[in-house]
Amino acid sequence: MISNRLLSALGPKIWLVAAIILAAAILVPASNLLLPVGHPLRVPNYMVSLLGKYLTYAMLALALDLVWGYVGILSLGHGAFFALGGYAMGMYLMRQIGDRGVYANPLLPDFMVFLNWSELPWYWYGFDQFWFAILMVMVVPGLLAFIFGWFAFRSRVTGVYLSIITQAMTFALMLAFFRNDMGFGGNNGLTDFKDILGFSIQDAGTRAVLFAATAIALMLSFLVCAAITTSKLGKVMVAVRDAESRTRFIGYRPEYVKLFAFVVSAVIAGIAGALYVPQVGIINPGEFDPANSIEVVIWTAIGGRGTLFGPIIGAVLVNYAKSWFTAAYPDLWLFALGALFVAVTLFLPKGIVGTLSDWNARRREHKAARDEAGPPSSGEVGKVVRARTSENGTHDDGAAPQPAE
User: Fold this and answer.
1) How many CA atoms, within 13 angstroms, populate the side-chain half-sphere of residue 398?
2) Distance from CA of residue 365 to its chain's centroid?
């Protein structure tokens, strides 16, 4: 009964997208592990990790769409939540190295030994356990989003001012994590990972499992966002986006609605960052760069904000284009990205998916209008025929018009 209600509430399009993502979670690893090397349908090892990175970016774009597309919060700092989740996973992976590091210290990571640290900082405790690391992946970004949102939304900071504050937040975190005395590896960050849950990160099977886990996490995040946006709360979120003052006037508290969406979005971004790190092999303060958060906005805008699956498409397409451009024309990528964003803003203001949805809606409306009008009557047909024959220069009886005397 609950499953039937869930199926009817989300709709067939939502489940179709979820099924496609789930199929990718099965088919890509199966192609990599089961087909022999050289087979035309085999996905190479490097491509598995590359596709997994694209999916983590898709999760990040989905997280931004939840707050930008449905609540109207243009966050230019979502890269901070992504990076915090990545650092939480990176700390776990560093603790798994143990005495296999360059300095063979069973407790301290190599960069701490190099910087003459004598003991492990207190905030590194517990990260030798996977469950604790996963908990921190969600708690740390969510807690930061809650504290930030509590003060920002209660102060009714909106629009461009809120966007600037979010950008300042991620920039401040970037500067902090660059410092060696923060205990996060400074400029070099965290890298040289060995194992995850006892399995080698470099093994093809591990990479395939990481890809499958990323795809499943993307599917679950998509379903969670869809369940939120299609519920009564989702309608209130849209009301806050379109008319915040009116929503407050009828008795709702827009700051609480914004806070809820912002925290959920930050948690999704943190999970995406945690899945990004073991597939890429490094996390450093560059992930906090405000330019990265601006790129996420571009992915979302190109795919179509307010559509959920539009940002997923936008993130995958843009990052695939980035990989191709940076290899073929490395000096032209930023120009191509800027031109793409300008073109979408001018000609596809609702993004790829939003434009296609509008086009399909207009087509259905025209078809419904024609069906409602029904077939023309015989009298109407006669009028049309007489009008057309008159335009061709003949009378109703078929005789040519006589010149005036």
Assistant:
1) 0
2) 31
Residue 257 CB neighbours (<10 A):
22
With CA atoms as reference, report the closest residue to 67 among 276, 240, 231, 230: 240
In 3D space, the residue among 228, 233, 314 whose CA is nearest the CA of residue 268 turns out to be: 228
d(CA 293, CA 287): 9
**Nearest to 285, CA basis, from 362, 133, 171, 138:** 171
Measured in degrees and rounded to the nearest 5, phi and psi for residue 104 equal 55, 35
First and final CA of the chain: distance in angstroms? 85
Q: Is 190 left (phi over 0), alpha (psi -120 to 50) or beta?
A: beta
Q: Which two tokens mark 323?
A: 């990989």
**Distance (Å, whole) CA 177 – CA 172:** 9
pLDDT band at 377 (very low <50, low <70, confident <90, very high): low
**Per-residue pLDDT reduced to its tens digit, 39-60:** 899 999 999 999 999 999 999 9
- Of 364, 341, 344, nearest to 354 by C-alpha is 344
Q: What is the mean pLDDT of residues 221-239?
A: 94
DSSP element (H, E) containing 200: strand 199-200
C-alpha triplet 276, 280, 285: angle, nearest 5°: 75
Q: pTM to 2 decimals?
A: 0.88
Q: What are phi and psi of 190, to 5 degrees?
A: -115, 130
